[in-house]
Amino acid sequence: MKGIVFTEFLDLVEEKFGLEMVDKIISQSELASEGVYTSIGTYSFSEMLQLVTNLSGNTGISTDDLLLVYAEHFFSVIKTSYPGLLETYKDPIEMLASIENHIHVEVQKIYPDAELPTFVVEEKTDNSIIMLYKSSRAMHHFGLGLMNKTFEHFNSKASIVLEKIKEDGTEVRFIVHKI
């Protein structure tokens, strides 16, 4: 998992819960990196899982809710760092439909060894999209948060239903209807 995901997560934790919480969740985790991350480094997903799990335990906020909030924060990082990417699209459905064939291609150019989830478009109309999310990492709520911010970015609203296909969250269907 790319370091930018870790550095931005810890920035968010510091912003929302304070530096003491950052130190606490790092201390509670068994991290090969010892909690030292660079945005261009590559780190084990298990480290992110430990950090999120420990933050959840210390705050009482579910890991799914934490991933949702983190994704919304991360969208602002994308918006600031890669504005051209978002300007390519005029509609949130169009943007979601292009995750696999355009957005992930661009991410791979910047981070060639990034391990990205797969998004398969099962059905698409002008106002709806059904996508299958597949990943060895159950971070579907991160994807949900990015989708929420995508609609907000386009001054639009959506109904997004998350349907777990595999109970562990490694395969999920997103049913999205633009409102």
Automatic annotation (TrEMBL):
SUPFAM superfamilies: Ligand-binding domain in the NO signalling and Golgi transport. InterPro entries: H-NOX_domain_sf (IPR038158), Heme_NO-bd (IPR011644), NO_sig/Golgi_transp_ligand-bd (IPR024096). It comes from the Bacteria. Signal peptide: none annotated. Residues 2-160 form the Heme NO-binding domain. This is Heme NO-binding domain-containing protein. The lineage of its organism: Bacteria, Pseudomonadati, Bacteroidota, Flavobacteriia, Flavobacteriales.
